[in-house]
Amino acid sequence: MNIKLLSFLALSFLVIFSSCKKDDDPSPEEQKIEELSGTWDIVSANVLDEDLTGISINFNASNTTYSVSGLAAFTDANLNHTEVLGASGSFSLNENLDVVTLANGGDLTIGNINKETGDLTLSYSAPYPKATDNATNITLSLKLR
């Protein structure tokens, strides 16, 4: 009788303590996607003499989608000859978590991301300033809105 009672008591403690287990920590990919999450304003490009305004990228972590506003201004600045930015679509990260691949767009290499300071640097290779020119490395500086 005592063994049965002790077994039942031990089983009860096991159920109670296992139900209090912390949730699993997010994976490194989930953490990086969460860092990207938000609306980022493109403020400058290394190939331009003036700052950019009115162009932003919103990364949505919950469904890994992105959308771009001000795409015409980005194209007018000759920064989208390879259509690296599309109006919207899904995105994914490579296995090293340093390249964002945009469906309906291209690949953006993450140079720096710091959500605390609101800084993000993305780069890609594209012809500049004309579509017929040789590809050059274009680095975008973004600020978290």
TrEMBL record:
PROSITE patterns: PROKAR_LIPOPROTEIN
Keyword annotations of the record: Signal
Annotated protein name in UniProt: Lipocalin-like domain-containing protein
Signal sequence residues: 1-21
Organism ancestry: Bacteria, Pseudomonadati, Bacteroidota, Cytophagia, Cytophagales
Domain of life: Bacteria
